[in-house]
Amino acid sequence: MNSNVITFKIEPRARSRRSASRVLEPAPSPDADVVATTSPTSRLARMLALAHHIEQLIDEGKLRDYAHPARLLGVSRARLTQIMNLLYLPVPLQEDVLLGRLKTTERGLRAALKDPVWPTNPSG
């Protein structure tokens, strides 16, 4: 069993006037000796993973264009473009985001995406 996977059991809670939310509790692990040491995945990492997934589905022909997943996800095309622009981050930076080594927000990275620094051609 993969020790990086955490499953949750969702049980309804008594409704209160303020909220009808559900409680997330970790499901009992088949390996009681294994202790989960992973931290919650950041929102930025989830958005970057979503961008990679959408790009893969478009490459496979399962989605037509960016407007199609925007409609499916219920977001504007502009918002989906912001999410997809995360793919323009350098690969080492993407790795840091996905592995939780970079603690920042998407908005904090947008400035870096506006003015990318392209490597110059050394051969002239």
Verbal overview:
The protein is mainly α. The protein has a domain at 43-113. 40% of the residues lie in helices and 6% in strands. A two-stranded antiparallel ribbon has the order 1-2. The longest helix has 17 residues, at 43-59.
Content of β-strand: 5-15%
H/E element sequence: EEHHHHH
What are the segments in which pLDDT stays under 50 over at least 5 consecutive residues?
Answer: 16-24
Q: Describe the biggest sheet?
A: 2 strands, antiparallel
Describe what is shown at a glance.
With 124 residues, the protein is mostly helical. It has a domain at 43-113.
Keywords for this entry:
two-stranded antiparallel ribbon; 40% helix; 124 residues; mainly alpha
List the helices and strands and how they pair.
Layout: E1 8-11, E2 23-26, H1 43-59, H2 67-73, H3 77-84, H4 91-98, H5 106-114
Antiparallel strand pairs: 1-2
